Fold this sequence. Notes:
7 helices, alpha/beta, about 25% helix, binds flavin-adenine dinucleotide, 5-stranded parallel beta sheet
Amino acid sequence: MPDSLNKIYDIAIVGSGPAAFSASIYASRYKLSNIVFGNLLGGTISEAHKVCNYPGVSDVSGYDLAMNFYNQANELGGEYSTSRITDIHKEKDIFRLISDTQKEYFAKTIILGIGTNRNKLNLKDEDKYLGKGVSYCATCDAMFYKDKIVVVVGGSNAATMAASMLSEIAKKVYIIYRGTELKGEPMWNEVVEKKNNIEIIFTTIVIGLEGEEKLERIKLSRAYNGSEYIDTDGLFVEIGSVPNIDLANKLGLELDSHKYIKVNEDQSTSLDGVWAAGDCTSASNRFRQVVTAASEGSIAANAIFGYLRKGHDSSYSTEIY
Ligand SMILES: Cc1cc2nc3c(=O)[nH]c(=O)nc-3n(C[C@H](O)[C@H](O)[C@H](O)COP(=O)(O)OP(=O)(O)OC[C@H]3O[C@@H](n4cnc5c(N)ncnc54)[C@H](O)[C@@H]3O)c2cc1C
């Protein structure tokens, strides 16, 4: 294992999801030294119950898919550090990265594949019930709700996937959604609509959380079956996410109006030497999926190959076979 602290990497890849590992795989095949930083190996997808839309893998758990990405990157020589990067400075042509373990790393270029953060309901006591009934990850916590009653908030794929998985374990699952119809993939909507133990409550918002030691009931914005309350053991919040922009702000990167990192065709950002890929960017028509994140990571690595080889001209592009 090289002494990562004393070397200057060709690329430091911040984030540990599909965008990051795809970038690492391509970078290693271009013989560019690289290191991936992340506290959650595999990123967000490692928490997904099932992935059925990644080409070539018809039905795989998010965790297994993420581990495949990691193993492939590792076999090709990409390094991995289980840490978060808390700061990045550009000093002349070299970037200095500081990790939460107070270590310093140096790199010629950066790829940010830092994904997004889950939205919260922002209700009073939401944090108090975290781990005591409130969860943001059905894959991680579903097993605690065997034969219990749970509520999923949201109407997108994440919500329908979570509800579908929970329905296999819990006795009863409510989906509470503020809209008038589910907005995810029709395939997932059909799955939940066919389940006998899933009940969908539309045009309703959760406005309160109650319970002594743990969550016992939620308050609704309007009465359902004659009551403003639903007794529940668990509440799974699946209402989307916001970009993770701390590092982008520290680097002074240009953001779009929704605060995603603005990137060019080659995934380069407004700061020379910094690229961004995956859910944190404005690219891929804002279609935030594993396949688009992996694609953006590969484009960034390809552009950096040209940038380093041709003296900082990222328009140089090549293909590998
Ligand atoms: C429940 C659920 C189900 C999904 N199902 C599917 C599906 O079936 N198919 C599909 O294609 N997509 C699915 N998605 C979307 C998919 O997970 C994302 O599009 C994809 O993971 C984006 O990859 P990424 O590499 O851009 O970011 P992420 O996977 O979010 O990875 C970014 C990682 O970077 C880390 N990070 C952030 N800041 C730092 C830092 N400063 N230092 C170090 N690390 C940092 C984060 O902790 C995170 O682990 C699903 C999402 C959810 C929530």
